[in-house]
Design goal:
The chain contains seven helices and no strands. The chain is mainly α. The protein has one domain: Alpha-lytic protease prodomain-like.
Amino acid sequence: MSESKEESGCGCHGDTDRAAVDPAYRRALWIVVILNVGFGLVELVGGFLSGSQALKADSLDFLGDGSITFVGLLALAWAESTRAKVALTQGIFLALLGAWVLGMAAWRAMNAVSPEAELMGGIGIAALAVNVTAALVLARFREGGDAQARAIWLFSRNDAINNVAVIIAAGLVYWLNSAWPDLVVAAVIAAIFLHSAWEIIRHARAELKEHALRI
């Protein structure tokens, strides 16, 4: 993206201008990328194993955070138009993933089967720990109280809310022996994710239009 701060509703974050000149900050972002993408894949597998749609939806948040920041780091030397095109492609891909999870939640609502609450809750707790770790990795770079620092903690807070929602849903699934808490949380997280993907697409299209006008 042309903006130096990769601040989208997806929860991804990384000041690309700062990353270009600060090796320590760049290393911190790489750690966050590895944490997000790595655990996102683990949580996605866990979602299939446990039968939890909420875990699948939450895994998209991890994968979205990690993939956007990853491309942002790779694209430090790319032209603005190239970065915008990549962002547009990512936004479309993430929107398709979000729509798939939302569709799966709707399908499961017609064939409601309770997920494995213990596995679901355990992975939810692990997800919360990963988000806290990522926030701690970036904490030393939030001095100054600028917009980027606020964005990091805002996104970390939103991610943690998703994780807590999954944990609560797991408890309700266990208590009620019902799939509905899992499906409701999955639908909410997927809807938020779709909104985030749309924001990425909207900003990328605006940047491409602005670039075309300058040519």
